[in-house]
Design brief:
Layout lengths: L7 E6 L3 H4 E11 L3 H8 L9 E5 L2 E5 L20 E4 L2 H14 L2 E10 L2 E11 L2 H20 L7 H17 L3 H18 L9 H21 L3 H10 L6 H30 L1
Antiparallel strand pairs: 1-6, 2-5, 2-7, 3-4, 4-5, 6-7
Helix pairs in contact: 5-7
């Protein structure tokens, strides 16, 4: 039976479980607890970080969980590390025992919580991960953490957006073909924000576009006053002045294709290294 998320009050989580195991099934179970254990859990005291569940006499018991002593309990306190019986249906118990004995799986708790006032625990049937699997998980987590840090909205400052817009304008002024790079970057941002939804749109991004356009205003005025001399000169040298509209579309695409062809060996080497 899959656990419910409604009205759950989390007591503790086993964060190592998803790192060490591939989960196949999740079950929600009750726990046989003493009064002092319930009181400790209600104040958020408890740990299942290094615990697991095993079959003892046809029942499932939680091993190595830790519920600290309840200090206000003067007598009849509990053993913090005692074995605790899990409450599951007979069918669920037989399924879990079969998974362990026949498929070599492990029963691991993933979280302990209160649901409708009763202590519950979520257990997973999982297969242990190999060392290289754990390394891949760690790399992925590290990258997600770094990506979140890099793309955090808190890290985006007005000065950063201003400088990016200014440098983009300088790049365009140095070479008109720099526009291809700017368009590529814009398309990447559109993909990340609106398609993949890896990050949220921030109105500070518009500052970059505004600074870029404002910085180019003097140059556009100069071009207008001088009959777009740089553009007409470039077209005259390439012979595109007499070309058709199709040629104007075709030649840039050919240029981009050649650049990609030159870079393919580099990307192949990087891909081989990363894999």
């Amino acid at each position: 039976m899959k656990s419910k998320n409604v009205s759950q009050k989390i007591i503790c989580l086993n964060r190592k479980a998803s790192f060490n195991y591939y989960f196949k099934e999740l079950y929600e179970a009750g726990i046989v607890l003493k009064g002092s254990e319930v009181k400790s859990l209600r104040i958020g005291k408890g740990s299942i970080a290094d615990s697991y569940a095993v079959d003892i006499g046809g029942e499932i018991f939680l091993i190595n969980s830790h519920i600290p002593l309840y200090k206000q309990s003067s007598y009849n306190n509990h053993d913090p590390k005692r074995e605790r019986k899990l409450l599951l249906s007979k069918k669920q118990i037989n399924t879990l025992i079969g998974r362990v004995n026949q498929e070599g799986m492990t029963i691991v708790p993933t979280k302990m919580y209160f649901y409708k006032g009763k202590a519950k625990i979520q257990v997973a049937v999982g297969k242990g991960k190999k060392l290289y699997d754990k390394r891949l998980v760690k790399k992925k987590r590290d990258w997600q953490r770094e990506k979140a840090k890099i793309f955090s909205r808190k890290n985006i400052k007005f000065s950063d957006c201003f400088l990016v817009g200014l440098f983009a304008a300088f790049g365009f002024l140095s070479k008109y073909l720099f526009l291809y790079l700017l368009v590529s970057i814009d398309l990447l941002f559109i993909y990340l924000i609106f398609i993949k939804k890896d990050r949220k749109f921030d109105f500070k991004y518009l500052i970059t576009a505004e600074v870029f356009l404002v910085a180019l205003v003097p140059h556009f005025i100069w071009l207008t006053n001088n009959e777009f001399i740089t553009i007409t000169y470039g077209l005259a040298r390439t012979g595109l002045e007499q070309s058709t509209l199709i040629n104007h579309i075709q030649y840039p695409l050919i240029f981009i294709g050649k650049q990609i062809g030159i870079l393919i060996p580099f990307f192949e080497i990087v891909g081989i290294y990363l894999t």
